[in-house]
């Protein structure tokens, strides 16, 4: 997008918002045409605001924006999809929030990434229609890492480069992928990963989504895949994400009845 462009018509997903002044909101948007955008929505905290319902987190929206000195200003907003099922179930809310936080943390302002935008919209649609949460979220996660340049190497040892054999392995965030058993002790941050969990990570990279949703992983594999990906993301971002803690609490409360 040209630096001198003064207006922009685009489609975006609202990632989050913060109160600004007495009646306004500062929006963080992931747009189809310009990546992350920070924009002010004037008057959206007022009771009779016509824009407010179109600019809630998770909403896919058509926007007209005008450039101000430092930020964009929302001049028109029409919701395309509210993804209402994501707001009616706390687990789905948490999982969708995790997806949005990944996009927010791994993207940068006004850097177009249409592949990631399309993947984000598809993932929100999949969660909304009731697809298996584990598959929808972690398929998104592995392909997002591709689109932002951090694809993990899962088929060859990142230390000795030999092909991974069908046995339990290690994973190194610092090296960016799988580590074979003979190199595991040589890589300082390597942590164990079972072959079953590694197979799922590989399948997320190379298998069509429509085939993946037919598989049913064990609870242990789900926990292991989540732990490895959170470890890898925290290393890349140099910080932990916020939403996994919220999800853990929601799951504990649901399990307790």
Summarize the structure.
The protein has 257 residues and is of the alpha+beta class.
End-to-end C-alpha gap? 50 Å
- Domain count: 2
Instruction: Tell me about the largest β-sheet.
Output: 5 strands, mixed, barrel
Helix fraction, binned, reads 25-40%
Judged by helices, strands and strand pairing, the structural class is alpha+beta
Shape: elongated
Radius of gyration: 20 Å
The CATH architecture of the largest domain comes to Up-down Bundle
- Average per-residue pLDDT, rounded, comes to 92
Work out the strand percent.
Answer: 15-25%
Strand order of the largest sheet: 1-2-3-5-4
For the secondary structure, the number of strands is 8
Low-confidence stretches: none
At the first level of CATH, the class of the largest domain is Mainly Alpha
- In CATH, the topology of the largest domain is named de novo design (two linked rop proteins)
Give me the number of helical elements.
Answer: 8
CATH-wise, what's the superfamily of the largest domain? Answer: Recombination protein O, C-terminal domain
Q: Quaternary state, please?
A: single chain
How do the helices and strands follow one another from N- to C-terminus?
EEEEEHHHEEHEHHHH
